[in-house]
Amino acid sequence: MEQMDPRSGFCNSNCIFYSKRKPLPLPQNHSLDITTFISSHAHHGKLALIDASTGSHFTFTQLWQAVDAVATSLSAMGIRKGHVVLLLSPNSIYFPIVCLAVMNLGAIITTTNPLNTSAEIAKQISDSKPVLAFTIPPLLPKITASSNLPIVLMEEDGKPPIAEAKIVNTLGEMMKHEPGPSRVRDRVFQDDTATLLYSSGTTGASKGVVSSHRNLMAMVKIVLGRFPIERDETFICTVPMFHIYGLAAFATGILASGSTIVVLSKFDMDDMLSAIEKYRATYLPLVPPILVAMMNGADAIKAKYDLSSLHSVLSGGAPLSKEVIEGFVDKYPNVTILQGYGLTESTGIGATTDSLEESRRYGTAGLLSPSTEAKVVDPETGEALPVNRTGELWLRGPTIMKGYFSNEEATTSTLNSEGWLRTGDICYIDNDGYIFIVDRLKELIKYKGYQVPPAELEALLLTHPKISDAAVIPFPDKEVGQYPMAYVVRKTATNISEKEIMDFVAAQVAPYKRIRRVAFISSIPKNPSGKILRKDLIKLATSKL
Length: 545
Known about the structure:
Layout: E1 10-11, E2 16-18, H1 34-39, E3 47-51, E4 57-59, H2 60-76, E5 84-88, H3 95-104, E6 108-112, H4 118-128, E7 132-135, H5 140-144, E8 150-153, E9 166-170, H6 171-174, E10 193-198, E11 208-212, H7 213-226, E12 234-237, H8 244-256, E13 260-263, H9 269-279, E14 283-286, H10 288-296, H11 298-304, E15 312-316, H12 322-331, E16 336-342, E17 350-352, H13 356-359, E18 366-368, E19 373-377, E20 384-385, E21 391-396, E22 403-404, H14 408-414, E23 421-429, E24 434-440, E25 445-447, E26 450-452, H15 454-461, E27 467-477, E28 481-490, H16 498-506, E29 517-520, H17 534-542
Parallel strand pairs: 3-13, 5-6, 5-7, 7-8, 8-9, 12-13, 14-15, 15-16, 28-29
Antiparallel strand pairs: 1-2, 2-19, 3-4, 10-11, 11-22, 16-17, 17-18, 18-24, 19-20, 19-21, 21-23, 23-24, 25-26, 27-28
């Protein structure tokens, strides 16, 4: 470390970038579960969770009583350490209760997207082998279609459940369970598995990411360190709780801060803005498309809603451009933009900007998170690179996953023996230690041996006044290997042609980066965290071949 440059964090002797953020002490008690760790934080008894649509709520005292009751009830049902429990539900104030109760027993929570098809859910059930599922009545058929899993209903709609459903309990009944001495308490250790989240699969098949209680504790400590909460803060939760972004922020991290979380079951712009006004929300985590919509509709929004309580938006999923940051700051001068970068495999942790000044390093993912180390590695030679050189980002630290579930091959190709996670993201780190993600390694387009980053062309297309959204994909070609193809969403009432778009890009990039094919589309498919689903567009483009 003696050769570490304090400005960039880069150490010459081992080619590692060290975090410039203050390191965080982790709990020393080896026998500790994430639920006990979170519940040990002070909360002053105020509101923990509020349902934005109904106003139903839990104080912190009621929340921890409910978690204890559900854990006791699960134990009585025979759920033990190491068992997997599936949670299929939209965002709700009950979502964290189920997660925290399951993890408190040393059992493992696996979550899935309510929008997934029955076939996708069946695949996850056959991979993760849960012994019990929690869901809501409208989603029951998605589970019963492929399995006869015992099911706990998280809410009741007054109708008899479908005949095939093996309903064994309701969450309402479980929450009435008296926590008693009868509960079987397995010792839970920090290294035990806590969650099994399936990575988004934007570049291939979805894989189960195994995270430990220690991974989650480190994540909570980092989240708490990022928001030095001195007063009563209120967070709006629209990001999906089944995803690492929502789970990290809301089912665990923010709860430990003693803040109030207002939960929206699904994203709706008007509902979100109404909730900010009604509950005087101060923090709004979101994904870039929502931030752009707030910027574009700012005048109408401010005329209709009082957003004066809001002081910070947290954006994750993709970096924000200079135009978006400055446009948003111009419209909402009292709101600070904070950005973050992380993966399911790193428990949502990696890099952040913690002030507007840091976010104004346009295009940056931020500085390395506390206790996190990085390497920038040349994908061709394996050489670790210094500042301002572009290569694959490797991360190491206390939030890095244990591995992929039942997938030794994927684990060894992603995690090396020294604990480095190959992120698959192409980046460089500048002289001041800021990380700039350039593209996904697997998404680089190979044109005559040249590597073309789609994100660079997408950023360029978005500067055109007649384009509202764009995605660039590799299109197969016998002669050149692949060439860049653009899917473009035109701005309303504009009519830009394929040739105009190709000429616009050609005037600004090297010849090998030119776009050689354009298709128009009504919207770009994206996953819940805002990442472009390129594989869907590749399938669409090549289906006509």
